[in-house]
Design goal:
By secondary structure, this protein is mostly helical. The chain contains 15 helices and no strands. The chain has a domain of 98 residues. Helix 2 packs across helix 3 and helix 12 runs parallel beside helix 14.
Length: 342
Amino acid sequence: MEEAATRKAIEAVWRIESARLIGGLVRLVRDVGLAEDLAQEALVTALERWPETGIPDNPGAWLMATAKNRAFDQLRRHRMLERKHDALAGEAAAAQPDIEAALDDDVGDDLLRLVLIACHPVLSTEARVALTLRLVGGLTTDEIARGFLVPEPTIAQRIVRAKRTLAEARVPFEAPRGAELAARLPSVSEVVYLIFNEGYAATRGDEWMRTDLCDDALRLGRILVGLVPDEAVVHGLVALMELQASRLRARLGPSGEPILLLEQDRSRWDRLLVHRGLAALARAETLGRPLGPYALQAAIAACHARAATSGCAPTCATTRCAWAASWSGSFPTRPRCTGWWR
């Protein structure tokens, strides 16, 4: 029983720490596939040792130190990039007195770098989704396959091909800044939005919704907001997802039948998610114009979230839509599957 509890705790630690662990290793070894392999080896070591020794006070630092040691061993064994090895060895020696500080120093840049690599435009949309859920979301290949109702080998092949494509394209591992970063965010936002959409209105299988995918997308969106807090498009995306997710419990009837927005029981809406969505939308509005497509849809959803009854919402939505269009320069087209009417 104790061993099972420890294993469950290790899985939780992995889900929390894996993204920044892999991100930190990518900075060191400059290879996404190798970084993930090293992280997985550190996880295996933890599964072997922690049931006997107990979970360390800082499991993330323990995993990083273990993975770094394996990286140095592998570089020595294969005589890979000798000059890089010397530089890494020097960095490791300097970092030894305070491994926890070394882990946290560049965590923001490491995570941002990993997100941008996983969502690089050189990859197909399907590959970006799979690689993001794997590297940033911490999901297993089996979990991703089950989420999208496709065979596990299909997801595995997408991930392998994505890593190979990144290597062949020699994608740079530096985190961009300024205008270059802003230009890359739409690709990242698209991936997160697609994951949420697939959970909110599933295109495969018998179920109308798959809330686990919505949860994964929300987690990724919140990570992204923490990494680029001054980008309006990201706050707009999170606002839209928070507001739409607030209605998930009310979208299905007792027999699993779909309930459209105007017929939903508003008492079942999650007020915490509504509050978070409205706050994210307010932040997007203060950061500048144009609002962008996500904030536009979030602005309409906000009208329904604020309305006391469904009868009050359509007029508010029309007014809000006109106001939002004045910021964006054009009226929005028909919303996608996370539209306000559902």
